[in-house]
Design goal:
Number of helices: 11
CATH class: Alpha Beta
CATH superfamily: Aldolase class I
Order of helices and strands: EEEHEHEEHHEHEHEHEHEHEHH
Largest sheet: 8 strands, parallel
Length: 290
């Protein structure tokens, strides 16, 4: 089974759908968001992803008044969450820039009003963040949009994943194996979950959402059959913010896209044949003919 997101088809037999997660790495700055969109487009990804919150709803109560040191001074965590949110006009500006650069764009809504907000701007799809996998009210709102849904499975048990898919259904679903550690160490990658999820949910495309340093684990995910790959991006991993350290800088993103396409080509079709490039060595080296 495949899922169509905008002009892209996600699933077996198609190039891996590559998502550059901008998330909150724009730090509330539209110009920075546009620069990150340019980085993504120049690297050759298919889509960029943001996060959308109604901070008064989505911020856990025990976190709201926690002091946070920010580039704009010390403020409460709730104030910080409001500070880095974009309004409708800003999102339209960002969306237009993404579309002009040939990219799909969508976001992870963290609450039901954010679903309506994104629907009003007509996103191509919706992404469920790992932290929201158990939010049944949110899942129901997303299901009811009829849009394709990309579901990340970090910080979740298999029973919780089963329950979420029970709500969402499988018709327009892309599953993403993920481990929600920032940055993630290799021993927590558990990439064999990719075939496990594929076997458990036949016909559902399975991809990989990574938070590791470097490229190797994402490339291995593609070799294991991931049909989509999502990675956070930044202009500079040393920038202020919680996700920059687990993000790829522009050169890293370019190398990732290049190397994923090489791996896809190298996987072939599994049918044994003698390739044209082997004919000269065959003639030169094989002593006993078949």
């Amino acid at each position: 089974m495949t899922v169509t997101i905008g002009s892209n088809v996600v699933g077996g037999g198609h190039p891996a759908y590559l998502i550059a997660e901008i998330g909150l790495n724009h730090n509330g700055d539209v110009d920075l968001a546009k620069k990150l969109i340019d980085v993504a487009a120049d690297a050759g990804v298919d889509a960029v992803k943001f996060q959308k919150r109604t901070p008064e709803i989505s911020t856990p109560a025990h976190m709201r008044d926690v002091p946070r040191e920010t580039p704009w001074g010390t403020m409460s965590y709730l104030e910080y969450r409001n500070r880095v949110e974009f309004d409708r006009d800003q999102y339209i500006e960002i969306a237009d820039h993404a579309l002009l650069r040939g990219l799909e764009w969508f976001a992870s809504p963290w609450d039901v009003p954010s679903v309506a907000f994104l629907e009003d701007i007509n996103v191509a799809a919706h992404k469920v963040a790992s932290a929201s996998l158990t939010d049944t009210e949110l899942l129901e709102a997303l299901r009811d949009t009829g849009k394709p849904i990309i579901l990340s499975t970090g910080m979740s048990t298999m029973e919780q994943i089963d329950a979420a898919i029970g709500v969402l259904g499988t018709d327009r679903l892309v599953l993403m194996h993920a481990t929600s550690t920032y940055p993630m160490e290799p021993e927590e990658a558990n990439l064999r979950m990719i075939p496990t999820l594929r076997d458990r949910f036949p016909g559902v495309p399975v991809g990989y959402s990574g938070h590791e340093r470097g490229l190797q684990i994402s490339l291995a995910a593609v070799a294991l059959g991931a049909v989509a790959v999502e990675r956070h991006i930044t202009l500079d991993r040393t920038m202020w913010g919680s996700d920059h350290a687990a993000s790829l800088e522009p050169a890293g993103l370019q190398h990732l896209v290049r190397d994923i396409r090489i791996v896809e080509t190298a996987l072939g079709d599994g049918v044994k044949r003698v390739f044209p490039g082997e004919l000269a060595p065959l003639a030169k080296l094989r002593r006993v003919a078949a």
